[in-house]
Amino acid sequence: MMREPFERRDAEGVQTAGIVAAAVAAVVLLVLLGACWLAAQITGTGQGSPAQWVRAWFDDRPAWSSSATALVLVSLVVVAVVTALAARQFGLWARWLDWRRRRRVDRMARHLSAREDEEELRQKACQRKADRWGVPPECGPGLPLGKSVAFKAPLFSDFELTMLALMGPRIGKTSALCIPQVCAFNGGPAVVATNKRDLCDHTRGVRSRLGRVFVHDVQQIVQEKPSWTWDPLGFIAADDAKVARAQRLAGTFQACDGNRKETDAYFGPGGETLLANLMLAATLQGHSILATLDWLADLKANNEAAALGDPVEILAEHGYGEMSRQLKADRSLTPKQLDGLVGTARQIMAFLRDPVVHQWVVADATRRPFDPAAFVTSTDTLYLLSMNEAGSARPVVTALVMAVTDAAIKQAQRSGGGRLARPMLLMLDEAANICPWPELPDKYSYLGSHGIIPVTILQNRAQGVKAWGAEGMEQLESSASVMLVGGGLRSTRHLQDLSALIGQRTERVTTASRGKAHRSRGEDFRRVDIFSTAQLANFPRMRAVAFTAGARPVLIKLVPWWQGPHAESIAASNEHYAPADVRAQQRAIAEGTTRKAVAA
């Protein structure tokens, strides 16, 4: 019968199975002998050793009794029950099954990459590039990826590579990818966007030693109070190309609107342009973004509160005649048309209706404004927390990511070699849910050349398609210098594509036939997928396949943070920032995870 590649046993697998079988047999024999000896001592029969039992049997002396036999059976049952309870308590059976799964996957590593395929990911190669680019020594060679399964060497992503990770939930992407990379990034600013508090709690203490920490937490995921503000209109004011920036900001807000699929083909673009013109007027007049809500409340009125002024006149006075005429033309539309445009703009800006958001966007005497231009030249850290639900802050989060990235690009263009003096990390965990920046796929290909290192993490490809469309997701996959694929993926079509990208191997098949007068044996060869669709769907934890340009895929063992060089600092950070109930829950979840990681 033809076997799947995982089912085929090679010489190494047979040797391992033989060792395991011999060890199990030895343990069983020792337990049996121990039970017999104990029964002999308790019942007073037997001579106390197997050799003496045999001699007593030949001498026709009583060497055993029925009560001793019963006691042996009881002892074996007790041992079996205790062993089963211990295996359940410590997860021994699960660990053994998980080890088998990893073992089956690891055996395929020799069919994937050769040593030269991993050369550009090795520590020495990455460090040479960092030295050539003038990266400060404290930055290290790059972001850690894990260890090569085939050659046991640590692998890194250098400071020019962009990264995309596709991994399902509970696979280890936070513990073995996000946390280690944020903590290993020592020499420059870091932007960390996430929807869970564990990434912030585990890394905040480590990053606070390098510079100031800014936490944007509108939805109180980590219960951070607003101590600083950022008005999205600052993005428009930061450059002379204010019209284009206003349109980009409106488009970003539109992309974060959960109801954008229901937007009319006419009112959608029209409402976006209306919003862009109002935000431009508010910027020119020095208002906060809240002024747009006041203007949208009664757009037809041209006698708004004296503190705000008329947006049509504001645009005209500052030399933006075309925008002024567009806004005046919008006012002249029929009530039904105007209501459609205003309704669309209001829906886009719905996130501002919550007064809680106002504390994070309007500066006062106690909350200083955040400056993206100063941030990109520092070693500070910006945590952006948001959840994809009603009242979500993701429009502000996405706009802030766009503003910081634009500031970093401008700073890099002014620097020598077109690169930031200190690289900037852009860690976008659950990017499609909390930061669906529409420009991200277009910018991905050249961010690395400026020293901006984006790491986009998705649970599956469908998330990216929903956020950026099929073409945008394909562009993101093609532009990523390193694409990591782990377990937990379930889309058959996507897994088939991945299986084809990983490639095939040659498998030897032995056939045998037997007749009345003869026997024959033959060998044949066939091409099979290194990892089939089913095997990729059941990929074990702490394993990932890395795709890089110009090299064959590499099988990687992910290294969780508690096995890394910053384990003590990360644990101390979590102990300090995470509440007691959260830590207890984390420990309960981590018990099984830790055992599985140790087994790897």
From TrEMBL:
Keyword Transmembrane: yes
Bilayer topology term: Multi-pass membrane protein
PANTHER family for this protein: CONJUGATIVE TRANSFER: DNA TRANSPORT
Protein name, UniProt field: TraD/TraG TraM recognition site domain-containing protein
Species lineage: Bacteria, Bacillati, Actinomycetota, Actinomycetes, Micrococcales
TM ranges: 20-40, 70-94
Domain of life: Bacteria
One GO cellular component, as annotated: plasma membrane
One Pfam entry name: TraG-D_C
Listed InterPro entries: P-loop_NTPase, T4SS-coupling_protein, TraG-D_C
Keyword annotations: Cell membrane, Membrane, Transmembrane, Transmembrane helix
Biological source species: Luteipulveratus halotolerans
Protein localization: Cell membrane
Domain TraD/TraG TraM recognition site: 423-540
